[in-house]
Amino acid sequence: MTTPVPGPHHWRPWSHRTRRGVDLALAIPLFLLETAWLVLDWMFGLGLEVWAAQGDRARADAATLAHIDRVRVFLVAVLVLAVLAALFRARWTLIAHVLLALLAGQVLVFTQHEWDNDHTPAPGCIRYSASC
């Protein structure tokens, strides 16, 4: 009786769960680094730029819009890393990136809400009139 020849061994990232030590060694530093980037960008990227504007509305608006764009790019990057973590079945890395995506989403919603409240026209104002 002959034994069948095994087919070529293809390694797929989703075929085996990532070891816990490797997963935690990747999840913890990435979580800390990405959270620190988000906080420092909020404080220094937006806060100091608005402070440096010294009342110049156009410069403060440009800083806020730049911050919104940076957070949006950060959110996309975190979601891509979360998909990769799910693909490699790295549970703790996935959890860390989902938490970071929620945090970045909250920052984005809060900043856009502030932007909308600061730039709403006065009640009774016609949108394209000269006095608005």
Q: How does this model look, in words?
A:
By secondary structure, this protein is mostly helical. Helices cover 70% and strands 0% of the residues. The chain contains three helices and no strands. It has helices at 20-53, 57-87, 91-118. α2 runs antiparallel to α3. The radius of gyration is 23 Å and the shape is elongated. The mean pLDDT is 86.
Any key phrases for this structure?
single chain, 132 residues
Strand segment count: 0
Helix fraction by DSSP (H/I, runs of at least 4):
over 70%
Oligomer: single chain
Low-confidence regions: none
Pairing-aware structural class of the strands and helices?
mainly alpha
**Radius of gyration (Å):** 23 Å
State the shape.
elongated
Total DSSP helices: 3
First and last CA, distance: 90 Å
What does the largest sheet look like? none
Q: Bin the strand percentage.
A: under 5%
**Element order, helices and strands?**
HHH
Q: On the 0-100 scale, what is the average pLDDT? A: 86
Summed up:
This protein is an all-alpha fold.
Helix/strand layout:
Blueprint: H1 20-53, H2 57-87, H3 91-118
